[in-house]
Amino acid sequence: MNKFQVYRTLRRHVRLSERRNVAFETNSIAKFFMILGGVMLVLYMMFIAVLLSLIANDSTTFTAPQFFFSILPFLLAVDFLARFFMQHTPSQMVKPYLLLPLRRYDCVDCFLLSSVFSYGNLLWLSVTVPFSLMSVLFGYGLFPTLFLVLGFHLFIVCNSLFYMLCRTLVIERAWLILLPLLVYALLFIPWPVGGITKLLSVYSGIGTLVADCNPLLFLLLFGLLLVLFMVNRTVQYRCIKSETQAEKELNLRSISSFDFFDRFNQTGEYLKLELKMVLRNKNMRKTFLLQIVFVVILSLLNSFTDIYDDDFSTQFWSVYPFILVGVNHVRIMSYEGNFIECLMVRKENIRSLLEAKYYFYSVVLLLPLLLMLPTVFTGKYSLLMLVSLMIFTAGPLFCLLMQLAVTNKQTLPLNTKLTKKSGLETNYIQVVYEVVALFAPSFILPMLKMFFSDTMTYIILMAVGLAFIFTHKYWINNIYVRMMKRKYANLEGFMTSR
């Protein structure tokens, strides 16, 4: 097979894996809402393009092409951050093909090309095309218009390859997070040197090259694209090879037996299991630590800056630290998918496991509460507000997120970093539940404040949360009964997604 045939075959495999995913049919409704969200995103970006066009047409300092590229660093930074939620690295898809008789880099190259031509990159056309039609086409002609659209698209593709490189390196070595920070700091360096005007002036020069149809810009971009592609293929391949072929050293460490939990009988045993999973396994431990770091940063920003002082930001970012801890509930039973058959030997185990998870993560909510106390000391948030949101999260929000245990059938790896399969087949139901849990308080709070004082609003939230906490055995039992009705379908999904 030549490289083109390999590419077609692998792309066909990706499409078939999506269609044959055991959750494909069950996710159809949620998938509809995800498609609807995508359409809304495109419309929103087109609206932004119209606003940028109106600003460019009224500008007396820059021409339309100059204005568009003057904000290039900001657009690239937004694109880079958005990819954390949308884009996977090729190394995550290569593992099933490593033992096949393919040339050394064929799989990596094909998946790299797939990422280059992904919908995420094409999404920016909803900004460049409307902007070009409104501000460039009639004033500068067809070729400058095409140069602007194609030139910015090449910037986005280069940004995509740079993101894949950074993500792979950061997974291998966490301190390499400094690489993208350094690169983007260099992109914005004209700002601290000469102010925002200097920054805009520097990058407006790219717009001048576009308006003049100067081929130098494209030569530089294609050169950068080639360099990033070659570096990516080398790094991706070596990381995959080192993870899959390297001999693993067995390091035995003594971990406490946590005898304290013995008093809770079978539920206590699963509390031990949950705690040991966090301490022993790389992925769970890293996720937990990243959550802590993010909450600390958010607490400091809220305490000592005014960036989140508006009403919506206050309502959203005050509850987000608690919901962030519940991200493991969004993935509930996913890690257990690695050994689900053992748990199913005695079906009563599942009820005790669900109760243990609820107790564990409810107690863990005390951690973001403590980390957010600086916002209380500085007068940004009240202690009553934080306590009520914590209890509300442990009540109805955790109840909502734990419902996913019924439908979840995707296994998440405990230790593998690059070649993991999970996460490639998106569970859209989980996404919808997570979004609802995340934004529900932001809508509930202002509605309650329309009729009650702030203090009474938080007391109501606390009362609702306590009602769910006191009745947790009933709704956890309901989840357990529904899980048992779907146990064979879920088992099939867990085993096929390993």
Keywords:
single chain; 498 residues; mainly alpha; 2 domains; 27 helices; 75% helix; globular
Describe the protein's architecture and organization.
This protein is mainly α and 498 residues long. It has two domains: 3-245, no CATH class; 259-496, no CATH class. 75% of the residues lie in helices and 0% in strands. It has helices at residues 3-19, 28-58, 64-70, 72-86, 91-94, 106-116, 119-122, 125-135, 137-140, 142-172, 178-187, 190-211, 216-245, 265-280, 282-304, 311-325, 327-330, 340-343, 348-364, 366-371, 373-377, 383-402, 404-407, 428-449, 454-470, 472-485, 487-496. Helix 4 (72-86) crosses helix 10 (142-172) and helix 22 (383-402) runs antiparallel to helix 24 (428-449). The longest helix is centred in the N-terminal third of the chain and has 31 residues, at 28-58. The protein is globular, with a radius of gyration of 25 Å. It starts with a helix and ends with a helix. Mean pLDDT is 79; it is low at 418-425.
Fold blueprint:
Layout (H helix, E strand, L loop, with lengths): L2 H17 L8 H31 L5 H7 L1 H15 L4 H4 L11 H11 L2 H4 L2 H11 L1 H4 L1 H31 L5 H10 L2 H22 L4 H30 L19 H16 L1 H23 L6 H15 L1 H4 L9 H4 L4 H17 L1 H6 L1 H5 L5 H20 L1 H4 L20 H22 L4 H17 L1 H14 L1 H10 L2
Helix pairs in contact: 1-6, 2-3, 2-8, 2-24, 3-12, 4-10, 8-10, 10-13, 14-15, 14-19, 15-16, 16-22, 16-24, 19-22, 19-26, 22-24, 22-25
